[in-house]
Amino acid sequence: MILDTFSLSGKVGIVTGGGQGLGKAFALAFAEAGADVAIAELNPATGAETVREIEALGRKALLVETDVSSHASCQAMAKTVHEAFGRIDFIMNNAGICQHKPALEVSEAEWRKVIDVNLNGVFFCSQAVAPYMKAQGGGAIVNIASMSGLIVNRPQMQTSYNASKAAVIHLTKSLAVEWAPYHVRVNAIAPGYMNTEMAAPFFADPKFGGEWFEFTPMHRPGEPRELCGSAILLISEAGSFITGETISVDGGFTLY
Ligand SMILES: NC(=O)c1ccc[n+]([C@@H]2O[C@H](COP(=O)([O-])OP(=O)(O)OC[C@H]3O[C@@H](n4cnc5c(N)ncnc54)[C@H](O)[C@@H]3O)[C@@H](O)[C@H]2O)c1
User: Fold this and answer.
1) Is residue 256 included in any domain, yes or no?
2) Residue owning the nearest CA to atom 40 of ligand 1
3) What domain count does the chain have?
């Protein structure tokens, strides 16, 4: 039956940055869809809470304290997950950071930090899990890009973030081509303004939230849960012929 193709039953996955926000919503949705889920998170306290909530849903879960900007940390994380669960079927590369600052004021360290987490982190984690996927005959990688990788946001200035997310979209296409022979599909989601710890503090400010939602055709932020359907599509058998794609889930923001 068609709905069965969306099931993640029997699959093992990883969510980076799964301690809060979008990552937590993804992790819980994947568990509801039947997967066992490892949380690769910099913050062990929030990561442990997500693990508890996954276990309460009746699935297996594991916290792996991880810094996605470290190649060694990503390699160790993938090894730990594979040792614990025996396979890695999918990874949701979700961990990310944002900085609002005019480009002329951004320091070298600030620039490198955003690129290290948002771009290098996606590459390091993908490179760490792909050998296991290749060895087991396939897998799915989903990268959280942003509409900021497709357009330039206003009024905030966030060049490093925009550039990192645009690079994630092209990294997605490049890896999709390279790893298609291994039956590893690589896709991305480009969310609009979402109601999470990262973005919500700006919503009430007319300078930011006011303008953001005026220019969102649906005139509201998205809820984290509203990204989970497209994520499950990209990971599951239902998305078996989709690769290299970036799905915009932004209430129409990028249509203007
Ligand atoms: N919230 C939005 O409006 C929005 C819109 C588009 C894209 N995104 C993207 O979605 C993703 C999640 O955003 P969010 O709003 O949930 O953010 P958030 O700040 O609420 O959560 C990010 C999580 O990532 C973790 N993290 C940060 N650096 C890490 C590192 N080096 N290693 C491992 N974990 C790390 C944090 O501890 C946190 O748990 C990010 O990639 C973000 O750029 C968010």
Assistant:
1) no
2) 96
3) 1
How far is ligand 1, taken at its centre, from the CA of residue 224, in Å? 12
- The residue segments making up the domain with residue 57 are 9-249
Strand partners, 140: 90, 185
Angle at 230 between CA 244 and CA 14, to 5 degrees: 80
Report the predicted TM-score, pTM, of the whole model to 2 decimal places. 0.98
Pocket test for ligand 1, best of 42, 112, 158 (most atoms within 8 A of CB): 42
Q: Is the bond preceding residue 155 a cis peptide, omega within 30 degrees?
A: yes
Report pLDDT for 219.
Answer: 97
Which residue is closest in CA terms to ligand 1's atom 2? 194
Give me the pLDDT at residue 193, please.
Answer: 97
Q: Please give the sequence-ordered ranges of beta strands (E in DSSP) within 19-74, or none if there are none.
A: 36-41, 61-65
Please report where in the chains the tokens 């290098």 appear, as a residue: 120
> Residue 254: inside a domain, yes or no?
no
Instruction: Say what the pLDDT of residue 232 is.
Output: 99
Q: Is residue 255 part of a domain?
A: no
* CATH code (residue 76): 3.40.50.720
* Number of residues in the chain: 256
The answer to whether residues 24 and 228 touch, using CB atoms and an 8 Å cutoff, is no
The rounded average pLDDT for each run of 10 residues, N- to C-terminus, in the chain (256 residues) is: 97 98 98 99 98 98 99 99 98 98 98 98 99 98 98 96 99 99 99 93 90 96 98 98 98 97
Residue 149 lies in a domain: yes
Ligand 1 nearest-atom number relative to CA 43:
37
Contact predicate 28/57, CB 8 Å: yes
